[in-house]
Amino acid sequence: xxxxxxxxxxxxxxxxxxxxxxxxxDALPTVExxxxxxxxxGPTIHDDDDYxxxxxxxxxxxxxxVSTNWILDLMLRAFGPAVLEDPGALTTKFIAPVYEDVPVxxxxxxxxxxxxxxxxxxxxxxVWAEDDAGKVLTFGSAAVTLPRG
Amino acid sequence: xxTGRYTSDLEQGEILGPVEVVISPFMVREYCHATELHQxxxxxxxxxxxPPSMVHLEKLRxxxxxxxxxxxxxARVHYCFDARWHxxxxxxxxxxxxxxxxxxxxxxxxxxMDMDITLRTKAEGRLLVEYRDTICLSYREAAKDAA
Lengths: 149, 147
Prior knowledge:
Chain A: This is Acyl dehydratase. Chain A is α+β, with helices and mostly antiparallel strands. Chain A contains three helices and six strands, in the order E-E-H-H-H-E-E-E-E. By secondary structure, chain B is an alpha+beta fold.
């Protein structure tokens, strides 16, 4: 892939459904238990309306790691598993809540391409997740080292 | 190991761990299924790569061990994920996880806490992942602005 500064790679939008929020909530105790069975998480601001209201929110909001993982997913789709090689970096800040049923599009923008020895190159990226009005919800940066070509 | 403590009790300079950890293929597949990371390197490999985002769960592991009473009176909110990886982590590797409460501070009248977490191989001590996790401890106040 020929990559130049300023180039943007965008995902198809995904709806931040209640189910997607709950999948993440339940994944945490399931992973922690590590016994091959599903475990229920919560109540949290991500899956329980009353709990979210009690915390001053108008409704449940997504865990920021959901959009972070969707950004990582776009990096992997765009560049392949070399993204996971040394050295790599991903930073995300959760600057606005993601409410139920908001369409979320993730975006990578190439900021710099540095040629490296041994036919490799280092990409510096701006990354973000935005809603259907273009409002940025999650914002950050990433760096990946890829084979050239 | 502390018991009966809340996350909000942690103080700057406190070290949590090191804790010996083995991440299983089940843990990777379950996490990646929930977050829709359907790549074969996570889902189909018998010894899958651990996605670098999964380092966030190591913070939760340390919270469970050292702050078993949970987050305290207010829900905490995750504000920033900041990870650097130096090699792929594989399921089945024996790792050492350590956390350092590197900073507690006030910003715009809200209290934040940074925790620096490292994942190393147990055998060689090789650094695999560095992660800085930032949370807002006073979520109720932050939520008023977010809403």
